[in-house]
Amino acid sequence: MDASSDPYLPYDGGGDCIPLRELHKRGTHYTMTNGGSINSSTHLLDLLDEPIPGVGTYDDFHTIDWVREKCKDRERHRRINSKKKESAWEMTKSLYDAWSGWLVVTLTGLASGALAGLIDIAADWMTDLKEGICLSALWYNHEQCCWGSNETTFEERDKCPQWKTWAELIIGQAEGPGSYIMNYIMYIFWALSFAFLAVSLVKVFAPYACGSGIPEIKTILSGFIIRGYLGKWTLMIKTITLVLAVASGLSLGKEGPLVHVACCCGNIFSYLFPKYSTNEAKKREVLSAASAAGVSVAFGAPIGGVLFSLEEVSYYFPLKTLWRSFFAALVAAFVLRSINPFGNSRLVLFYVEYHTPWYLFELFPFILLGVFGGLWGAFFIRANIAWCRRRKSTRFGKYPVLEVIVVAAITAVIAFPNPYTRLNTSELIKELFTDCGPLESSSLCDYRNDMNASKIVDDIPDRPAGLGVYSAIWQLCLALIFKIIMTVFTFGIKVPSGLFIPSMAIGAIAGRIVGIAVEQLAYYHHDWFIFKEWCEVGADCITPGLYAMVGAAACLGGVTRMTVSLVVIVFELTGGLEYIVPLMAAVMTSKWVGDAFGREGIYEAHIRLNGYPFLDAKEEFTHTTLAADVMRPRRNDPPLAVLTQDNMTVDDIENMINETSYNGFPVIMSKESQRLVGFALRRDLTIAIESARKKQEGIVGSSRVCFAQHTPSLPAESPRPLKLRSILDMSPFTVTDHTPMEIVVDIFRKLGLRQCLVTHNGIVLGIITKKNILEHLEQLKQHVEPLAPPWHYNKKRYPPSYGPDGKPRPRFNNVQLNPIDEEREETEEEVHLLNSTTL
Question: In what ranges is there compositional bias, type Acidic residues (predicted)?
């Protein structure tokens, strides 16, 4: 199916893919998830037939068959092992195959670390470009420009003759109203230029490069096919536009998109190895390792990256994938450390060292920060999803460039006057995390020194706040409101936009304000019973930077609903291993509070908004419906389209393919028996028939198609039959009509099925696809009554296979049951047999 001709498939890379509310418009059996597995006791293809090129592959916007892919890999592995003793060359091929997994994750880690270092350096330089330029070396950012200057003072360490603001270059003034206005104008100009260039590149060259990428990565790792989403053009444009988007000053981060960048690297390198290029399930093992490498370089947290891949994005995570994810994260972190993009000889920008331990009474404000994080997460998810839904349903969504320009303009105009919003978000978080030492000149550390200290020490006692601190608190309150509002409207626009850093910034601002408040409370009321034991006069009791760190973790946890991986990421990010308990308390509180308003994190909410076929393993199915309540066809639907194993011609099958949009067909023994034989995919049938017409003589429209092992006897004048047993799935998954949907959903989640056939005493009644399950779950969420019962289903009871006389009942294509009198014996049920020609 051509994606360009289908209005429900993505048109601009924004992830607008088949909304659930539109699924019924595409026909009952049009699905992205029909398919078949492979017989576990046989080869993928019949041993007597040559493999047919193209069979077993997938179209765009379809779901892979995990069972078939795993069986293909086992067969490939057995074939390699059986040949490795034949010659030295075969042994070499066997070793290459065994080591290819480690090679591909090594290459992925190297590329991810290199690109992350490049993005960090370029983003820092372009962010400072909005304020001025270094005349001595144009490629230096502000900090690097002043490193070698001998004319820098301690109080004004960011000022040096080599660095010139735009006002100094254009109008020759460094101070005054004219200088301020000129710098303001140039700040807005550069912000709009970067934003316009970013959205233009995304729209023209790689529509899939927009957004965070994590919702789509989760969907792809669950088995969905999105061609081009992890391609080389997407990688190139996302790398460039990520730098531009961050430099524009928009309320977004680069950490989420770095996961997308790393997965692009993993996908590209997997094509160098046949083991992964020809197997979609194996390729997803590489993508899981790549996502770990992406978080590793985004936060400088290798272990946190592995846990993030396991907890948040991966659908299938075997033990060997855990090892390779760990190795990929290690390699990526090593490369990033070698590049040293932050110039501090560390992996991260936020590394802090606190000199005071936390005390038991501080758990109360930490838990309050967790409550704030949960409330912020619930508010953000609802507000952002509502805005994104409105963007899709109004004309405003048709002008992505205009939207980005408007958001960037509002952000730049409001951000410049406030020094905390003008700062790069990462620099803001670093300043909020930093403890006030004797060498800090920030206004957040403007305390009144009322003690005569004879020497400089690391742990300065708590002091009363000065005017600079109170001024900073007001500016931080304004920055908090600004960040909350702008992040809601920024996440989801058509530029690369991550959510990790904005959420952490909001939590860090709130945490720093709470930390200063607790610090002043402890100073002025140190005789209260909660402070008396720990906060003596002249003691260093409260660390406001710690509250900022806890608040950042709480807000990020409230938005994403991560727990274990988030705690590990934060303590790796800051080096605060001693403060794991406060982090755990705040993160768990934020999750509980957020779950009280809805169990979906922001990524799951965007997956559901975009209509991706994703079954979340975290959701519990607590309803009492049965397989017969969900299967298709239903009462008003056309009968189930089936193939017979040896009674149909090539023309019959081609007509069925042309007249229907189903992606697979059950194969039965005959129209009379309706006994299940197997399952054939629409794509495989089309490819096999086209291949047979080209390569086999005598195959015409009247040729008999045979799915059986032995070809039936035909008249001498009959054309040559076409054997298609090689494409038939001989062991499709089946459930009975009385199987609880709780079990069916669990099977789909854990085995990654595309479809499951519903039978009764071996007779095919219908089919359940992944799309049908998603529709059913959506109806249950909206408290909609279940659809009408199936056309052949009545009171969940069926006649026995044998009649009262002990002889088998006759079977036809469609069986219509009359209402059953509960007091009558089951053998007296009346069965009305429909005309078999209605199929």
Answer: 820-829
What is the pTM (predicted TM-score) of this model?
Answer: 0.82
CATH fold of 363-375+423-448+458-606? Clc chloride channel (1.10.3080)
Q: Work out whether the CA dihedral 42, 47, 49, 53 comes out positive or negative.
A: positive
pLDDT at 717 over 90: no
Q: Could you tell me which of 553, 537, 534 has the C-alpha nearest to residue 357? A: 534
Strand 831-833 relative to strand 815-817, pairing: antiparallel
How far apart (Å, rounded) are the C-alpha atoms in residues 711 and 49? Answer: 14
Residue 504 belongs to what H/E stretch?
helix 500-524
* Domain range 625-782, its CATH number among 3.40.50.300, 2.50.20.10, 3.30.70.1120, 3.10.580.20: 3.10.580.20
Fold match flag (103-123+207-337 vs 363-375+423-448+458-606) = yes
Per the listing, tokens 């038939």 go with 728
Q: How far is it, in rounded angstroms, from Cα 817 to Cα 834?
A: 10
Answer for the pair 177, 151: CB distance below 8 angstroms, yes or no. Answer: no
Superfamily of domain 103-123+207-337: Clc chloride channel (1.10.3080.10)
Q: What's 638-652 look like in SS3? A: CCCCCEECCCEEHHH
CA–CA separation, 713 and 450 (whole Å): 106
pLDDT tens sequence across 264-311? 999 999 999 989 988 899 999 999 999 999 999 998 889 999 999 998
Query: How many Å apart are CA 758 and CA 768, to the nearest integer?
Result: 7
Element spanning 831, H or E: strand 831-833
Give the length of the chain.
Answer: 839
Reply yes or no: is the peptide bond before residue 790 cis, omega within 30 of 0.
Answer: no
Residue type for position 820:
I
Strand partners, 664: 681
Using DSSP's 3-state secondary structure scheme, residue 808 falls into: strand
SS (H, E, C) 44-70: CCCCCCCCCCCCCCCCCCCECCHHHHH
Rounded mean pLDDT of the chain?
81
Six token digits for residue 244: 């531009």
